[in-house]
UniProtKB/TrEMBL annotation, chains A, B:
It comes from the Bacteria. It comes from Candidatus Hydrogenisulfobacillus filiaventi. Keywords: Lyase, Transferase. This is Carbamoyltransferase, hydrogen maturation protein. Belongs to the HypE family. Its EC number is 4.2.1.-.
Length: 363, 363
């Protein structure tokens, strides 16, 4: 997993990179695939161009969903994602189930009960009606299982060669159940970092399907809805639950870095504690990928006060989707914005965000 | 505007077409551009495939926004649209301003005050950062003028040749202000049909920009936010305001047909009363288009009880965006689902939905 680096030197590099992020983005002339990969380049695009233009306190928090105060003390969670995954069908799911789970999960980790989804389709002229039907039925089934209706939608068709079969946008609204503030800025030194299961399944499943590889072991995407796991944590752990995230594009490495930045803390995780299926590990070695930067679509990371960590772990493990939950590390006071990996060999290396674009169109 | 037809015979044809709509769609194998044009084929796709799969009472109403009951008696309006307009920049606006106005207008005609928007970008690799900046700034400006924040977003990048520069999805949430039920099913015989200004401007402006035509008169898109017009009607007219719609894709003809179907009534409109700018009329003649089927992006249709119609007209005319408001017709008991045009020559012809696809990618 790369060579060891001097933390102080890397920290200085990160600081310089952050300071120059905006100005560097301004110098770019064209969008690249990296800008959509969920790692550093995506961050630059959002922080350097889109964020400043739209700037407002809700957007600026850059959390998975915006939380909007409504009259009568209600708090509405609101989120959106576009899905451009290639191929459209992969072991364990398709773009339709993904589009429902992904947006429900953004609501769930924001502490909200999903209330309704929208669905916007951009279809390419000539797209197969049979495939469209399969995708729409997968969305309907996923939504029905969760108990969230798809209440509004839109369909556009673009000429052949101006799309890629189908792109789906879903937005979601939910009512926030947690009465305390959750978010990256609520994460505190001492918090335990809990991961709800093995990582990299979705990224590897899509990559294998895309490249048409034949591997002995079938690897399925973990695409699943996290609303039940999240709700049980909220009910069982209460305000000791400081933050939840779902490590999708950019993987656990990118999500941990986002939390380290949003909390002004450091995070240390144990490489040996992070569950990776042997077949996923094997595929990663063949494909030259790091499971820590691969997308997951049915896993959550929870940041929990130390005294409640064991209880949180027990709650998660009681649910089929959280059976393999583990504590993978803890939050430290500093150096701020730093994520460390304590390696199996006893070393300590900086775990950076996804850089570049090993896996475009993973969701 | 086409030859006169025997209403009874046309009605029978419509009835047969409706009955076989689902089965006909099932027989199709591939998506065509017509499925995205907002007319009959779009209706078939939605009624024959997407609607039945997602079926629930909120979606089934097929209104511009879904209205969701929340705790404490709050009613949330929720809507989404994807924008694929080509070209991206046209006289009077660009895909960014359109993406904000279009979704705000869907909330507005649903009787809601816009509370927040989401923005999902699908960028094509190689897309110009300068153009992206101009589009994002137009969105930010439009949102700021309306006073609605863009609170959550997402950015995906697809490989060169798999997109067309930029596609934008916006979803919107709002709080419904009207305490009475508005919608197509609230429209009643006797209701006056009010149109807030001249039609076809957006459709013609985009068409001219797309084809690079040089015309003497510059025709600008009418892209504008309708939230103020709608709010004033709600406050001033009260429960005599039965329904509002914004006639976008498919134009006034398609919207009137949707209302006739949703209300089980007939609608009769006077051709002479419908305002069309002379330069729009001229361009339509050159391009072979019917202004009644062209998209508008800053006009509303209001269905108002007869005793309140003059007041509604006065209120609309007091606002710059409604200065040219007129009563264009009225709702009749039957024959159900029928829209008639009383022609300038004194005839009466059936006004059908947009059929086929004269104008793909108009929004």
């Amino acid at each position: 997993m790369g060579e060891q680096a001097d933390p102080a030197r890397v920290l200085e590099k990160i600081r310089i990179a952050e300071e120059t992020r905006r100005s560097r983005f301004i110098g770019q002339e064209a969008i690249t695939l990296s800008h959509g990969a969920g790692g550093k380049a995506s961050f630059e695009l959002i922080e350097g161009l889109i964020g400043p233009a739209f700037s407002n306190p809700l957007l600026d928090s850059l959390d998975d969903a915006a939380v909007i105060g409504l009259p009568q003390g209600l708090r509405l969670a609101f989120t959106t994602d576009s899905y451009t995954v290639s191929p459209l069908f992969f072991p364990g799911g398709n773009i339709g189930s993904l589009a429902v789970h992904g947006t429900v999960n953004d609501l769930a980790v924001s502490g909200a009960v999903p209330v309704a989804l929208s669905a916007g389709f951009i279809l390419e002229e000539g797209f197969s009606v049979t495939q469209l039907r399969a995708i729409v039925e997968a969305m309907a089934l996923a939504a029905r299982k969760i108990g969230v209706p798809i209440v509004t939608g839109d369909t556009k068709v673009v000429p052949k060669g101006k799309g890629d079969g189908i792109y789906i946008n879903t937005a979601g609204v939910g009512i926030v159940r947690a009465v305390w503030h959750m978010g990256r800025d609520a994460v505190q030194p001492g918090d335990r970092v809990i991961l709800s299961g093995s990582i990299g399944d979705h990224g590897v499943a899509v990559m294998i399907a895309r490249q048409g590889l034949e591997l002995e072991a079938e690897i399925e995407s973990d695409t699943s809805p996290l609303h039940e796991l999240a709700a049980r944590l909220i009910d069982g752990v209460g305000s000791a639950l400081h933050c939840m995230k779902d490590p999708t594009r950019g993987g656990v490495a990118t999500t941990l870095n986002e939390v380290a930045q949003g909390s002004n803390c450091a995070i240390a995780v144990d490489e040996a504690a992070i569950p990776v299926r042997p077949e996923v590990n094997g595929a990663c070695e063949i494909l030259g990928l790091d499971p820590l930067t691969l997308a997951n679509e049915g896993k959550l990371l929870a940041f929990v006060a130390p005294e409640a960590a064991e209880k949180a772990l027990r709650i998660l493990r009681e649910h089929p989707l959280g059976a393999d939950s583990v504590i993978i590390g803890e939050v430290e006071e500093g150096p701020a914005h730093m994520v460390y990996l304590r390696t199996i060999l006893g070393g300590r290396r900086v775990l950076d965000m996804l850089v570049g674009d090993p896996l475009p169109r993973i969701c």
